């Protein structure tokens, strides 16, 4: 992928995450400062579409990213940006953890609630040792355009109802010092093909092991959510 195509892909993803509307070549030139004509951007977008990174929905003049585009974004375009969490979010996590320094159950519940407020996505935190999980923020996603149709809610609802049943398919592959990001068709759960699932694991008091998962549409704030999970894991390791 050329440098210009990387820049187009990154700007298009960021704009689509913010607005949930297909992004056109004219918009990229006018709003993102590309030093070339809309025709040049259109040609590059067509190349990206041929490579499977973009699609053009119905008759729209703009394009939207595919799960392949989000994967490239996470693996190659976030390296210099990820890991920086706003101070107010760090403070919220710090307060949650410090409120229950010796209670793994209260920490898990508190983290799920705090993280769902920060991300506005669906968050599950829990203790796999005891098969105990806390869910917050499911209502956050009801109004998102990705889930306007009832059938589109089915896959996400299955995570809410059956997370414990198939949780091992995520957890068994999760390194203790890193996080996993499943995007769209990568998800082990075959019913969640339009969602992104991010999972981090970390130690809890009393010898338990904890996990937090941020779940939402593929159109999510990857840099913020990844930074949040990494910060939670870092603070719990320090504790």
Walk me through this protein's architecture.
It is a single chain. A hairpin with an 8-residue loop joins strand 1 and strand 2. The chain has 239 residues and is α+β, with helices and mostly antiparallel strands. The strands form two sheets. The chain has a five-stranded antiparallel sheet, with helices on both faces. A two-stranded antiparallel ribbon has the order 1-2. The model has no long low-confidence stretch (mean pLDDT 86). The protein is built from eight helices and seven strands. The protein has helices spanning 3-19, 25-32, 38-50, 67-77, 87-99, 104-119, 150-171, 222-238, and strands spanning 54-55, 64-65, 122-127, 132-136, 179-183, 195-203, 209-217.
Brief summary:
This protein has 239 residues and is of the alpha+beta class. It is 49% helix and 16% strand.
Helices and strands in order, then pairings?
Elements (H helix, E strand, L loop, with lengths): L2 H17 L5 H8 L5 H13 L3 E2 L8 E2 L1 H11 L9 H13 L4 H16 L2 E6 L4 E5 L13 H22 L7 E5 L11 E9 L5 E9 L4 H17 L1
Antiparallel strand pairs: 1-2, 3-4, 3-7, 5-6, 6-7
SSE topology string: HHHEEHHHEEHEEEH
CATH topology of the largest domain: Beta-Lactamase
What is the number of helical segments per DSSP (H or I, 4+ residues)? 8
Content-based structural category: alpha+beta
Low-confidence stretches: none
Tell me the CATH superfamily of the largest domain: GAF domain
Question: Biggest sheet, in brief?
Answer: 5 strands, antiparallel
């Amino acid at each position: 992928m050329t440098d210009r195509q990387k820049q187009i892909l990154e700007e298009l993803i960021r704009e689509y995450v913010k607005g949930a509307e297909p992004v056109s070549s004219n918009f990229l030139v006018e709003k993102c400062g590309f030093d070339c004509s809309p025709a040049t951007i259109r040609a590059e977008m067509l190349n990206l579409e041929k490579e499977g990174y973009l699609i053009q929905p119905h008759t729209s003049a703009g394009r939207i990213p595919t799960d392949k585009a989000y994967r490239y974004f996470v693996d190659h375009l976030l390296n210099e940006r990820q890991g920086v969490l706003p101070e107010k979010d760090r403070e919220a996590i710090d307060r949650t953890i410090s409120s229950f320094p010796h209670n793994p159950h209260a920490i898990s519940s508190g983290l799920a609630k705090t993280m769902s407020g920060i991300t506005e996505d669906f968050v599950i935190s829990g203790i796999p040792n005891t098969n105990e999980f806390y869910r917050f923020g499911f209502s956050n996603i009801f109004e998102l355009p990705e889930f306007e149709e009832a059938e589109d809610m089915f896959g996400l609802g299955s995570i809410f109802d059956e997370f414990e049943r198939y949780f091992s398919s995520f957890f068994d592959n999760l390194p203790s010092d890193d996080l996993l990001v499943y995007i769209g068709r990568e998800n082990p759960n075959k019913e969640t093909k339009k969602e992104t699932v991010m999972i981090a694991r970390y130690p809890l008091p009393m010898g338990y092991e904890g996990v937090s998962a941020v779940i939402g549409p593929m159109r999510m704030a990857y840099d913020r959510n990844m930074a949040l999970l990494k910060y939670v894991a870092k603070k719990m390791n320090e504790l």
